[in-house]
């Protein structure tokens, strides 16, 4: 659901990579250009809502045909859309004046830009830290003054977390909207770079499983990010028991893992250019009041330059234990690095064991689980707090998936779309047990993936 997100520009072809997408809601934005033909080729789509945008041109006949076969298509509120026969007669009528007006406008813009650049060269001074220059930042998100940040947090009264960026405070907007305010002193150069990276990234990503940026403060020596509030803290707190006395059941854990994977899939194939989170871990998976996952902390995230292969060379960054060993060795960052980190999160969800624990026979969680699997000892692997309340087939499938994700070679890992598919199957097994069905292995069940290998364990990092 990307409705009312102030989106601009055309509908990008990258959407067709979301092969599992069933409903696409882009209503109440400022999207322009024509409706692309590829939407009709997305077989999983059953609902498309493009209403109240600025779309124009001919409505694709292929989309009309699909609408006749059951597709729910809403295009109202786009005054310049038309059927093929009605568009032809009006195209030439307005062509000449439109071209003339566009040319005149472009000439004025060029003159103004040249004047602006000339004046800027005469008056500007080079600063050590460049401000956030993304033009959309003032229109899409609210810019807070430092005094407003103080008021929102009641003078930084309640601390709700702390990370590499800074301290996180609870805040209240308009007396009813709860927010989380992450504050950093500008004395930290690295922190300021992460601040800029996180703001600029969050301005252009919108997904229900990614934390939403409400606004920011960038005033003199004061930096702050204002997020939507996650009422149930982070996943780590729930697994450790620090957040609640209630134990997360197996279905909830699988759902949280799948929603996290959906957020990552959006970063990997739903964004242009694609992005890699680079710091996926249980403390960065926030939970709202309904225990839905919201992936947070994008300060280390990286984008791929457009037109290059799906990897980028960069200095190693991340959290020990979650760090992709191949990335650690080669400095080559790919989306499979996020897959590795999510695999570690899956192992934590399954075992409720620390990622690194020196007193274990194998300190790293992936090595320890691999050792237990060779012994066929699933009971010692599973979180004892679950008290056996889970379907064994669901657990084994989740374990196999996790171990394939942490394969030391990125080529042996699934992509994020495959991870989502496998987790859906895990949920089917578990839900079938609860409903008392025994037909999960029938031919009618979702086809299982057999392309993953789980006979290797990673180097500890």
Automatic annotation (TrEMBL):
<keyword id="KW-0597">Phosphoprotein</keyword>
<dbReference type="InterPro" id="IPR001611">
    <property type="entry name" value="Leu-rich_rpt"/>
</dbReference>
<dbReference type="Pfam" id="PF13855">
    <property type="entry name" value="LRR_8"/>
</dbReference>
<keyword id="KW-0732">Signal</keyword>
<keyword id="KW-0472">Membrane</keyword>
<feature type="compositionally biased region" description="Basic and acidic residues">
    <location>
        <begin position="434"/>
        <end position="446"/>
    </location>
</feature>
<keyword id="KW-0808">Transferase</keyword>
<keyword id="KW-1133">Transmembrane helix</keyword>
<comment type="similarity">
    <text>Belongs to the protein kinase superfamily.</text>
</comment>
<feature type="transmembrane region" description="Helical">
    <location>
        <begin position="94"/>
        <end position="118"/>
    </location>
</feature>
<dbReference type="InterPro" id="IPR011009">
    <property type="entry name" value="Kinase-like_dom_sf"/>
</dbReference>
<keyword id="KW-0433">Leucine-rich repeat</keyword>
<keyword id="KW-0067">ATP-binding</keyword>
<keyword id="KW-0812">Transmembrane</keyword>
<keyword id="KW-0675">Receptor</keyword>
<keyword id="KW-0723">Serine/threonine-protein kinase</keyword>
<dbReference type="GO" id="GO:0016020">
    <property type="term" value="C:membrane"/>
</dbReference>
<dbReference type="InterPro" id="IPR017441">
    <property type="entry name" value="Protein_kinase_ATP_BS"/>
</dbReference>
<feature type="domain" description="Protein kinase">
    <location>
        <begin position="154"/>
        <end position="427"/>
    </location>
</feature>
<keyword id="KW-0677">Repeat</keyword>
<feature type="region of interest" description="Disordered">
    <location>
        <begin position="434"/>
        <end position="461"/>
    </location>
</feature>
<dbReference type="InterPro" id="IPR032675">
    <property type="entry name" value="LRR_dom_sf"/>
</dbReference>
<dbReference type="GO" id="GO:0004674">
    <property type="term" value="F:protein serine/threonine kinase activity"/>
</dbReference>
<dbReference type="InterPro" id="IPR008271">
    <property type="entry name" value="Ser/Thr_kinase_AS"/>
</dbReference>
<dbReference type="InterPro" id="IPR000719">
    <property type="entry name" value="Prot_kinase_dom"/>
</dbReference>
<dbReference type="Pfam" id="PF00069">
    <property type="entry name" value="Pkinase"/>
</dbReference>
<protein>
    <recommendedName>
        <fullName>Protein kinase domain-containing protein</fullName>
    </recommendedName>
</protein>
<dbReference type="GO" id="GO:0005524">
    <property type="term" value="F:ATP binding"/>
</dbReference>
<keyword id="KW-0547">Nucleotide-binding</keyword>
<feature type="binding site">
    <location>
        <position position="182"/>
    </location>
    <ligand>
        <name>ATP</name>
    </ligand>
</feature>
<keyword id="KW-0418">Kinase</keyword>
